[in-house]
Amino acid sequence: MTVMQHIWIVLGVLFVFLNIAAGLIWVERRLLAMWQDRLGPNRAGPLGLFIVLADTLKLFFKEDWIPPFADKWVFILAPAIVVASVLMGLAIVPFAPGIVVADLNVGLMFFLAMSSLGVYSIVLGGWASNNKYSLLGALRGASQMIAYEVFMGLSLMGVVMLSKSFNLTDIVAAQENMWFIVTQPVGFVIFFIAGLAETHRLPFDIPEAESELIAGFHSEYSGMKFGMFFIGEYLGISLISAMTVTLFFGGWLGPAFLPPVVWFFLKTFVFIGIFILMRASLPRPRYDQLIGYGWKLLLPLVLLNLLVTGAIALWLRS
Amino acid sequence: MISHLRTMWLVFIHLFKKKVTIEYPEQRVALPPRWRGRIVLTKDPDGGERCVGCYLCAAACPVDCIALQATETEEGRRYPEFFRINFSRCIFCGYCEEACPTYAIQLIPDFEMAEYKRQDLVYEKEDLLIDSQGKYPGYNFYNVAGLDAGVKEKGKGKDEEKPVDVKSLLP
């Protein structure tokens, strides 16, 4: 592949995903409204799509305030980390044969590393805000991430065992005959729950938890800095959805009447929809419930899944 | 887990339920006739002002948004010299309507009163007076009042007895 092609792919991925993240503002508000028997934003532009523009403009023109008691440089840095780390994570997702920014042979590890780096934005943002609620949110975020990071990685090891590769293109290719959702259903469920906690989306949004922590780690943020957290969250949803599709639902694979990229994005949007549906329907667990659930139930379960998968893989080989 | 999935399914099928939103400027809200909205001053069937300037509405108003000054015609009929309602204060409680002895002040089903300037929310008498009898058609206070204010003579009203001649000794 030439250098120009690489640059085009990088720009294309950036363009598509930043637009998806912005478009999700509209998608989420419309879907949430529909599920609450309302209509949602439908005034600005066709179907209310210009709400995206209006929201973005509003965020740009808001006062970009840094509280005098905040740790200025860390405060500025924190929102950038979440967007950067998620965008880095998107680099290894194969959208179609040949359309991937970096076809790393340790792609899965890179994804896990990048999604773990996202926690820095929460911790640093909460710490630099110098505000007790933000700090509480940051603490919660950190412990939630650590708890869920552990078995997020472990839940994917079943997939790695079956496909014998960390490279995501190979993993998708290994699903040619059968998607891994069939052979790894437990892995899928646990990965999805961990992904939910990883993006700290509702119902696992305890670092923010409006009703108890007043938006938690980003309560001091305004303007486009808050917007970065916002976009980072939507990008995180897209990334986790894309990874779920890649790892368990055969990535770009699908009947030939649609091009592979279309299949990939169709599947991804289904999972984005499920993310929003979970926000619309499920209540937030208590903090200790969430952590206890992670360590006491999901971790043993994922280890068991790993054990059984390994045993069956060995048995099939012999 | 099962209950969570059930919850998600139940929320999901709301996608196909009828929406409760009324898309306001195009679709109108159905307001019942007794809905308490904009305040008006109504008129008698013969076109005279019903308000007799008794100040009861101003006294009943919990937010003191009504101001008026009563005066009289040569015939002895009272009417407000000015009548002012500050709608930026009004809470549309309807106490003025309840207090009004002549059915003059009434609340009607209209809420589209938005203004760009706050001062425009202060309605004067000519803004409040409407050329209608409102909720009580055919009612004329001076038909049932004892006073002769050009509507009927003393003692000619419905169920009204002749005035007693105080200078006579006969019963």
CATH architecture of the domain at 30-137 in chain B: 2-Layer Sandwich
Structural class of chain B: alpha+beta
SSE order of chain B, as H and E? HEHEEHEEHH
Distance between the termini of chain A: 40 Å
Number of helices of chain A: 12
Radius of gyration of chain B: 24 Å
Strand content of chain B: 5-15%
Domains of chain A (count): 1
The biggest chain-chain interface is: A-B, 12 and 14 residues
Low-confidence stretches of chain B: none
CATH class of the domain at 30-137 in chain B: Alpha Beta
- End-to-end separation of chain B: 93 Å
Task: Count the E strands of chain B.
Answer: 5
How many runs of DSSP E, i.e. beta strands of chain A? 0
Mean pLDDT of chain B: 87
CATH topology value of the domain at 30-137 in chain B: Alpha-Beta Plaits
Strand content of chain A: under 5%
In terms of quaternary structure, the protein is: heterodimer
Q: On the 0-100 scale, what is the average pLDDT of chain A?
A: 85
Using only C-alpha atoms, the radius of gyration of chain A works out to 20 Å
Task: Walk me through the structure.
The complex is a heterodimer of chains A (318) and B (171). By secondary structure, chain A is mostly helical. Chain A is globular and about 65 Å long. The mean pLDDT of chain A is 85. Chain B has a domain of 108 residues: 2-Layer Sandwich (Alpha-Beta Plaits), CATH 3.30.70.3270. Helices cover 17% and strands 14% of the residues of chain B. At the A-B interface, helix 11 of A face helix 1 of B.
